[in-house]
Design a protein that fits this description.
The chain contains ten helices and 14 strands. It is of the alpha/beta class and 309 residues long. The strands form four sheets. Strands 1-2-3-4-6-8-9-12 form an eight-stranded parallel β-barrel, surrounded by four helices. A two-stranded antiparallel sheet has the order 5-7. Helix 1 packs parallel to helix 2, helix 3 crosses helix 4 and helix 4 crosses helix 5. The longest helix is centred in the N-terminal third of the chain and has 21 residues. The structure holds fe (iii) ion (2 copies) and zinc ion (ZN). The site of zinc ion has 5 residues, from helix 6.
Length: 309
C-alpha cells in the first residue's frame, strides 16, 4: 500500500492528536512531525503530548504508528567542534529519541550536521561519536536515527551518499541507523533524480545499502540539479517535475517506505510573501491519482477556508 503524507504541526493543547487530525484532513496515511518548533529545542514533557488519544485515532483510521515519522530540530549540530554545544546537541537528541519511542515512531530524521570551519573528516568523526553517545544512552529502544541526505548548502555533511556511509561505518550501533532520502536535497546535491532515479537508487544501494532506506521526503526543487541550494518547491513546479516525483511515489520497490511532502505553503497571491495555505491535500491527491493539475496553486488560493496561520 502507498504510504503518503506530509509534515504536519504538533502544537497547542492537541499536540500529537492534532497532528493526526491534520494528516487525515489531507488524506494522508503517513505523516511527519517536529515535536515542537523546528528552530528551537523547547519541548513539552511526554505526558502532555496526548499520545494515547493519538494512537486510538490512528488505529481507527487504519494507520500504523510506525508510519509516523519524527524530525529532530535542524539547529542541533552533532558535528560542532565546540564541546559544550556538541554535548547539548547529544543531550537534546537523547530526549528526542525517548519522545519518538513513546510516540511509537520507527525513525527520527536527523540532519547529520555542519562541519563549519572544520574539515569534513573531523565532522564525520564527531557525528559518529555523538550518535554512539545517543544510541548508548537509549539502548533497548528500537527507534532508529535516520540520517538525511543533504543538498550540500554551506558546510552541510551528507551531500554525498559516501558521507552518510562513512558516518554509519564509524558508529558501533549501526543497526539503529537508517537514512532519509530527500528528493530535493539529492537533486540539489547533483544526483539525477529526475531522469535516472533507478540509477541513483542503484548507487544508494551500492554505497549505503537499500536496507537502510527508511523515509522519502518528496519535494520538488526551485533550483537546477547540483545547485546545492535546498529550496523546496511545490510538486510539479520545480526542476524535478511531477512525472519524476509521481513515479518515485508509485515505485513498487519502495512501497513500504513512508513518503513525506515538505513542500512550501502557498502565498495568498503570486506576489505575497507570507505563506498561508498548506498545499498538502491537493498535492497528495494529485500524486495518488498520478494526475497533475497545473492550476492547483490557484485553486488553493481561491479557497480561503483553507487558510492557516
Ligand atoms: Fe530535513
Ligand atoms: Fe527533508
Ligand atoms: Zn530541505
Amino acid at each position: 500500500m502507498l504510504k503518503l503524507g506530509s509534515h504536519v504541526s504538533m502544537k497547542g493543547d492537541d499536540m500529537l492528536l492534532g497532528s493526526v487530525e491534520e494528516a487525515l484532513h489531507y488524506g494522508a496515511n503517513a505523516f511527519m512531525v517536529y515535536t515542537g518548533a523546528p528552530q528551537n529545542t523547547k519541548r513539552k514533557p511526554i505526558d502532555r503530548l496526548r499520545i494515547d488519544e493519538a494512537h486510538a485515532r490512528l488505529q481507527e483510521a487504519g494507520i500504523a504508528k510506525a508510519d509516523v515519522v519524527i524530525h529532530a530540530p535542524y539547529i542541533i549540530n552533532l558535528a560542532n567542534a565546540d564541546e559544550k554545544k556538541r554535548a547539548f546537541a547529544v543531550e537534546f537528541l537523547i530526549e528526542e529519541v525517548k519522545r519518538s519511542d513513546a510516540i511509537g515512531a520507527k525513525d527520527i530524521v536527523l540532519h547529520p550536521g555542519n562541519h563549519l570551519q572544520d574539515s569534513l573528516e573531523k565532522a564525520v568523526e564527531r557525528i559518529a561519536q555523538s550518535l554512539d553517545e545517543v544510541l548508548a544512552a537509549t539502548r533497548g529502544q528500537s527507534v532508529r536515527i535516520a540520517l538525511e541526505t543533504m543538498s550540500g548548502k554551506g558546510t552541510e555533511v551528507g551531500r554525498r551518499f559516501e558521507e552518510l556511509a562513512a558516518i554509519i561505518a564509524k558508529t558501533r550501533q549501526a543497526d539503529r541507523l537508517s537514512v532519509c532520502f530527500d528528493t530535493c536535497h539529492v537533486h540539489d546535491a547533483g544526483y539525477d533524480v529526475k531522469d535516472d532515479f533507478s540509477g541513483v537508487m542503484r548507487e544508494f544501494d551500492r554505497v549505503i545499502g537499500r536496507e537502510r532506506l527508511a523515509v522519502f521526503h518528496v519535494n520538488d526543487s526551485k533550483n537546477p540539479r547540483g545547485a546545492n541550494k535546498d529550496r523546496h518547491e511545490n510538486v510539479g513546479r520545480g526542476h524535478i517535475g511531477f512525472e519524476a516525483l509521481a513515479s518515485i511515489v508509485h515505485d513498487e520497490d519502495y512501497e513500504d517506505i513512508p513518503k513525506i511532502l515538505e513542500t512550501p505553503y502557498v502565498t495568498a497571491d503570486a506576489n505575497a510573501k507570507k505563506r498561508v495555505f498548506p498545499p498538502y491535500k491537493e498535492e497528495i491527491a494529485m500524486l495518488k491519482e498520478r494526475r497533475f493539475d497545473p492550476a492547483f496553486l490557484d485553486r488553493i488560493r481561491k479557497n480561503p477556508s483553507r487558510r492557516k496561520g
